[in-house]
Structure formats: structure tokens, C-alpha cells
ABC transporter permease YtrF (Collinsella intestinalis), 1055 residues
Amino acid sequence: MAEDTRTATPAGANAAQGALPRRGVFWHFAARSLKLNRSRTIVSIIGVALSCALITAIFTSVATLYEGLLKAEIVTEGAWQVELVNVPEDEIDVVHADSRVTRSYDRISYGDAIMPKSFEGYWGRYLSVQEWPTADKVKGLKPLPHIAEGRAPQAPDEIVLTHNLKGLTVEDGSWLYDSLPTSGKDDDVPRASWDGSLEIGSVIDLALGERTFVDVESGQEAPCLYDESLYTTESATGDVISEYLANPGELKSYKVVGFYAPEGVRKDDVWGRMGPGHLGFVSSPEVPVRTTSIYLTTNLKSRTEIDGLIEDYTGNPHAVFNGGGNRGDIENMEGQTAAYSHDSLMRYQGMTDDRSIWGTLYTLAFILSAVVIGASISLIYNSFAIAVSERTRQFGLLSSLGASKRQLRRTVYAEASMLAIIGIPVGLLVGLAGTFAVFTFAGEGIGMLIDQEAFAKTGFSTIAINPAVLALSALLAVITVFISATIPAWRASRISAVDAIRGSRDVRLSRRERREMRKGRRAGARGTSFGRIFDNLRLRTAGMPGLLAHRNLTRASAKGRVAVASLAASVALIIISGGISHYLNYLTQVVDSGGSDIEVSLNRRLELDETTSDGLKEIDDAYRALATVDGAFGEGYMLLTSLCASFEPGMIDYGELSSQSEHYDMPDRGMTDDGTVYAPASVLFLDDASWNQILDENSLDRKRFGDPKNPVAVALNGTQSNDGERYSVRDLFSSTGTANLLTNIASAENAMFVEAGVDDGEPVARYEEYGEGDEARFDENGEPIYGKVARPLDEVLLDSYDLPVGAIVKTFPSPIKAYASIWPTIVLPVSALPTLAASSEGIIDDKDISSLATPFAFHSEQGTYGNTMYAYLSFGAEDARAVEIGMNEIIADKITGSEWYRTYLTNNAEDARAKRLIGETVQLFINCFILITGAIAVANVFNTLTNSIILRRREFAMLKSIGMGQRAFWRMIALECFSYAWRGLAIGLALGAVITFFIYQAMMMSFEGLSFVVPFGWVIAAVGVVIAVLAVSTAYALRKSSSGSIVQTLREDAI
């Protein structure tokens, strides 16, 4: 019956529609409704704008990060997409003229020279000579090589070499490379030669030829590609070099005018990191071109098209060996041309099939957007639901005038469209502006997050404005708005005129509430009910305002649940933000190694005519030279020696030591029947200033601990360890005593000493054996053969040193923290090292002697990896990056040569800064997300409370008309707000604490000793937010609802 009434079209309605189109009437009605309810409309627009802004920010951030990854890849590796290797001479012009090629660079190789015999190994046999790349020729396709010392070549007889060769002599290669036998086919080819150490001004003689291998299947000779790995064959004694240098040219002399190296220690050498040797550059030499490789970019849009281009020039779309190796690893190789594809670049260009990184970030973006959409739907839906509830009589009147269900739904959708038309553009602008502000503010940290080297100097502050991203964000916002409006529109279409005028839909009890009322009536008929008991209790404790507040909350439970849920979400987000901030700060503090700003590690090998004291003087000189860099100041240095030792009964906490073995997946070192513990140990030798600092800070006697002829050590407790899974702090020493350092363990034939331990209560020396004779070191597949054997320690112990340990300390200089071992660590002054090493001065290590067997023997046979003096130099820095550059120049100039086996600089200050910036950037993104989602939740609370109070104007007028005073009225409102507050706080705190606990559990997977904390300051902030939101919402709503007289409010029946 009601349906028939609504579908009829009265004459008045036709007249009205004559003035406006049918659709215009409802559009005008919706616009008028939004205008009359400004507060709700503004809050709704804010909700739509916030939702769209956050979605825009999420996807714009992802797009910007991808653009940053692309830029970083171009900065570090170059813009080339394909490198065609070994292009025939008659095809070079064809490649350049190819319409698919947009830029190209010819990498010209003039051949290879065989290095001196001492360099004969997997990675040092050749010196490849290529044309010096200039900016005009390279065209941005690869980063240009950095001249670390000297200048670029200009004349045909000048050469620039890799910095790794600086300071080496023709006899020094064996210190860098494993020696390998050869096929003998190029024994007559002149090897590279020079006089003395390679320095600026040295002259090097080279005979350039072609690396050549014999194809196993065809038996034919073929030239190697310039960066192919060394061709070897297996034999009973190991690998043999099977390739050789063919067609050598005349021996020509080149003057060394410079050395090139990556500009930063963290950068790779993108020019010479592949191939079995070194790289040198010349300029227009008077020698023939051997091979040409072409780097190129294309106008192609897919990986399939790239593969097609590769196939055109190689005959095989899969003639790519990006993983290194040689052409024997490529199936169905045809011809001599192969290719590299710049997969990482094309991945960020969206051209590869490997979408893992795209999928990860965009999946995360969609997940975050789903959270935002869910929160936004709650806000916008609530706004529409309140609007429909507030205008029940209006929809009923429209229905009585003949408006159909579809037209009523269209009215709500018209409001949704207007909100979207205003809110979405605002949201897009706010989202872009907010993203730009965040990337500008945290540009340095974002640059570190993307690529520490690529953006170390410039940061990353630009954003990618992608039309597709903006369209997607707008579409998701539109979907959010119309999903929010669907249920209210459906409810509006079901309002009948009679129900609307009677107001029977204003208060609707749920089935559960109706069931409870029926039970209450039946119980009342029997004389009593629990509800009545509680009502009497409320009247006695809180008076009539308390009873009315409870009834109001029960009557409008749905709206109350929305307000409580929104408050709980806001509180939970605040607590989660605090938890993340707390644990990120802890992570930054713990992961910090505690070392100095700059640390330089040196490996100094003693020449046969040098003593330990000589080596210490060289290290001290290097320390003082590095400290002369502007802005640097020395913080001390130390030498580290690892060895095996025994400790008197009671010195070591054996339970703590055993737990170390469990964490590090190592066997228990053992304790003898009398309680003596055998274990690995670390001995740190400190410079005098650092040693005296330990003595003074721990109130130890300098005279007792300062005699280098009769050293007394200090043991360290409170050392930090990291087993690859978690961080922990250990106290291994229980008391002082004597540590017996095992300084000379006898070697065993075809075996190497690896550790001292205990078997059946007796000390033993454990060896790792690899067969009998050279032939038995490898199995039939060429794999090494290892075995385990233990011998009584007293049979193989040739020498030891009884070292008194006079004190146990937990206070020591910061640089030591990074080098304190997971095993027992003891400390001595560096002046004591010659005393401990005195009995080892005459020992010369060979390849079968382990450094653990003779820890203080720093002399080695020529051509073997011997023991070296491991030194760590610590420096403070005012400008760590500038100091790093200055120190690298000194290292390149003075701390080089065969006696310095390896030198490496670590910029801890820059690393710590990068970690801190990354942590702060991650925290900033998290806080921005939490702030906006929290703002949506707060807006939802404001919208719900204000509108629900405003809709109760007649109720308030009626209460005042029957005599309720202002104080009682405010008390009722306060009790309602208190109910919202404590429920929202309880649920929000519980939810936030649970999620924070999960964060804590995730941190516990990596850190020991971490305590679960819900940051108190953030709890106070959450309470403040709840109080502020409720106070503002209530005050605003009461001010709006109190306007007008009581009589006028009670008579508001018209539209």
C-alpha cells in the first residue's frame, strides 16, 4: 500500500518537476541539506579529503621510492640496458644505426698482458688494457672511473692502473692470489714487468694479446670475452689454467700516470670487478683493437623486445651471463657475441618479469590503503547514517509526495557525489603536498634508505607525480565514499511516510534489547528484576542524571559503539606509535657498535729481517700519519690476536661459556676433571693511552699493570655478542688467576690445528686433516677431503705462556666494545706484545701451519698466507666524510705495498648516521600514517557525538521543561562522556598493548635482555587526546543544540 502511494505522481510534484528537471530536484535537495548542516558536511569533507590524501600519499610514496631506486641504479651502475660483448667489427656500425638504439658507447679493448709469475692465480693472471672512457664517449651510460691519484692518460704511451696494484713489485702477487699451474702454451709470451714498486712515474712493459680457450665440444680455439672468468680444467692435484694468451704483440712500454679506484670504500668498481685480473686504461695507443663491446639504451618497452634485440646480434635470446662465469655456462651459445642485460635497471623501469620488489611495495601499499579505506568508511558511513536519521521526516514527506525508492537513494548518492567532488581534489592536493613535505624534511634519510652511496651527498627530496597513481587514488576514494553511502541510501529508501511522521524509527531497539525488556516485564510481574535493582542503585549513587545517562547509552547503543570504537582506535594508534618509537630507539642504540667515528684495520706482515717491535713501530707511525688529517683526532689503537688458552679452575663461568657454544653452533670447548677450562680466547693489545685509561677508570695500579717485561692482564666482562640472530651481554670471568696461552702447537702432516678442547676429561689438540700427499687432498670430483683427529695436548704443545690476570673490569674505552670477543677477552698494553712473541720470533709459518697454532709468529714463507699483525686504529672526526677522504689518500700513498697485506677504512660515524636517519625516516612514515588514521578516527568521534547530541535537542528541551537544572543536565552529559572515555581507553590500551607486545616479541628474536614496555608518556598522551576530543565534541554540540527557546525546540516538526 505504501509502495503504491510513493509511486503515484501528484499534480504538485509534476508542477515542481516542471520548474526543475527530475534529477535536478533531488540534486538541489541534497545540496540544500548539506548547506543547512555545515558542521556535519565539513567533517564529512574532511574525512573524504583525509582518506584520499593518505591513499595518495601511500601510492605516491611507493612511486617515488621506485623512481629513487631507478635513479640510484643509474648513479651507481649507469643507464645502459644491454651490453653487447665482443661485437664483430662489421656489425658495430649496424648497432649504432639500429632504430631501436637511442644511445650507445663503444668499450674498446686492446688486449691482455700476462702478469708476473707471482700473480698466476684465479684472479690475478692478466692485465686488461682498454680505452680511457670520457664523458663525451660514455654519455651517462656508465659512471666514469674515479682517479684516486695522478691524472687520466693523454699520450699513447701513458696508462692508468687499478689502485690495487699500487706499491706492488713483480714478486708480490703471491700475497694476493692462490698460485695455479698453467697449460704451458703461453710460457714464451713476455710477462708484464716493471722495476721496484708500482708508483706514479713507473714504467711498465706489456705485450698485449688475446685470451684464448679451446671449445670442449668443437675442439676449436676461440677468443675469450674481456670479462669472462678464467678457464680451468680439473686434475688430481686441483685446477689447472687451460686458457692461454695468443697472438701477442710487441713489448711496449707505458708510463704510469695515475691510479683509479671507486670514489668511496662502499662503492664497487663497475669497470674492473669482473674478469681474472686487473684493468688499465690508455688513450689512443698505437696498438690494434682486439674486441669491442657496446653499451646501449633503447626505446623498447618490454623485456620481450629487449630479448629480441639480443637475439638479433647474438643469435640467442639467452646469450646472457649476468652472473659471471664464462660462455660454457650459456646453453646453445652461437657465434662469439654475448650480452649483459641490466636487469635491476629494467626492473625499476617495469620491463622485467621479476616483479617481486614491485609486488612487495605495492602489496604493502594496498594493505595500508585498505586500512585507510576501512577507517574512512566508518567515518563517512556514520555521517550519512546520521544525516538520514536526522531527516527521517523529510524522506517520509518526499515518499508521500511520490518519490520512488530509487529517487530517495539517488538523493543520498547525490550528497555522496557532492562530498566526493569537493573532498577528493582537496585530498589529492593535500596528499601530494604532505608527501612533498615529508620527502623534503626527511630527504637525507630517504636517500640513505634507498641507496646510501647514491644519495649520500644530495639526499632524495623530489616526489614522482604519476597521473596513473593519482587516478588510482581518486578511484579508491570514490569507491570509499559510495560504499559508505550504500547502507544509508538503502535505509532512506525504506522509510514510509507514516513511520517518518510518527518518528517510530528514531529509537529502534534491537532484538536482544526487546527480549530483555520482555524478561524484565515478566520479572516485574513476579515482584522484582535485576534491572530494577540496578536502576535503584544508580539512583542512589548517581541520582537521576546517572539513571538517565545509562538509559541514553542503552537506547543509542549503536552510536555509542561507533564512538567507543573510534576512541579505542585513536588510543591504540597512539600506543602503537609510542611502542614503535621506543623499540626503534633501542634498536638504533644497540646496533651501534660503540666504536669510534673512523676505524682503520691494518694487516701488517713482517719481513724476514723485521722483529715484532719493528712491526709495532710501523703501525704506530701509520696511526700518527692518519691522525694528521684535518678534523681527525686519534682515540687509540689496538692489536688483536686470537688463540687457544686454558684457565685456572674458577676463573671462567663455565655455564655462561657453554651457552655461547650453543648460541654460536660450536662444540663445547671442555673442562677437565680439576676444573681447568680450555677455550678460544682473544688478546687485545692497547696503545699506552688507552691502557692507562682502563687502569685509571678502574682504579688499578699503573706500576703493577704497566711492566712490559712482566705483563699482568685485565679481563673484560660485560662484552656484547651477536650470534647472527640476537644481541646479548656476557660476563664470562668469575675470578682472577692465570691464563695459559698456547703459543706454539706442533704441526701435523697433512693436517691443520683448529682448536684445543677436552676429551674424556683430558686436554687435546684437534686437527683438521685433508689426506695424505697432494694427490689425496681432492676427491674424484675435485672437492677437498677433510677429516678430524685429536691428539693429547701435552704431546703437541711446544710452547706456552703463563699470563697473570690481575683484574676483571666492565669499564673500558668505547672502541674496544666492537672487538671484544664472544670468547674470554683479556687486555694488555701493546708494549707487552714483544714479550709474549719473543719465543715465536724464529718461527716462519707455511701454508700448513694455522695462525691459531702460532698466534705470535708474524713471519711467513714467501707465497703463503701467513699470520699477520691485525691492528685496529680508532679516530674521532668532526666531519667523518671529509676525514674518510683524507685518510684514504694517505692510505693510498703511504700505507701500501706487500708488507701491508690488507688495509680497510670503516666510517662508523657515517654508518651510524645512516642507520639513525633510516630509523627516523621509517618512524616518520609510521607516525604520518598513524597521525592521519588517528585523525580520521577522531573526526569520527566528533561527528558521532556532535550529531547524536544535536539530534537530542527535543529530549533536552523536554528535560529542562520538567525542571532539570543546568547542573544535573551537565552531570548527565558528563557521565555519558565518562562511559565513552573509559571504554575507549580500556579497549584502546588493551589493543595497543597487545600489538606493542607483538612488536616486543619480534624484537626479542634479535635481542636478549629486552623488557616489555608500554611507554607511559604515550599513555598520558592517549588519555589527553580522549579527554580533549570528548570535551570539544560535547561543548560544540551543546552550544549548537541549546540555541532557541524550549517551546520552539519542542515544536520543530516541519522540514
About this structure: The chain has four domains: 1-78+355-507, 82-341, 556-595+909-1055, 606-744+809-897. The longest helix spans residues 908-950.
